[in-house]
Write a structure and sequence with these properties.
Low-confidence stretches: 74-87
Strand order of the largest sheet: 1-3-2
Shape: flat
Number of strands: 5
Mean pLDDT: 78
Helix content: 25-40%
Structural class: alpha+beta
Distance between the termini: 85 Å
Radius of gyration: 23 Å
Order of helices and strands: EHHEEHEE
């Protein structure tokens, strides 16, 4: 017989979140402060805790964002360009 209760996954700690996303502490603090990363769902003492669902949603949104940006052309400085650069043609053809 199935249980009528929904199985709840345990929340993720700060270090577990860092391990999942693969970035450093300073990056995570900066992104949370800028509103680009979800704030912890709750705090127990000094521990910040996130739901696995919140982190999975963030990763899914990030993947979509990156796939939308993959069509851009980048110049040598690494910044995205809005159009292709004009390349002058110096060749002439005679038939």
């Amino acid at each position: 017989m199935k249980s009528p209760f929904k199985k709840v996954e345990p929340p993720l700690t700060f270090n577990e979140v860092l391990e999942i996303i693969g970035y450093q502490k300073s990056w995570l603090y900066k992104e949370i402060k800028a509103g680009k990363f979800p704030k912890p769902d709750r705090k127990v003492g000094k521990k910040n805790l996130w739901s696995r669902e919140a982190i999975e949603q963030y990763l899914a949104m990030k993947a979509i964002e990156e796939s939308n940006n993959s069509d851009q052309i980048y110049n040598w400085s690494g910044s995205a360009m809005t159009s292709y650069p004009a390349i002058p043609c110096t060749m002439t053809f005679e038939f």
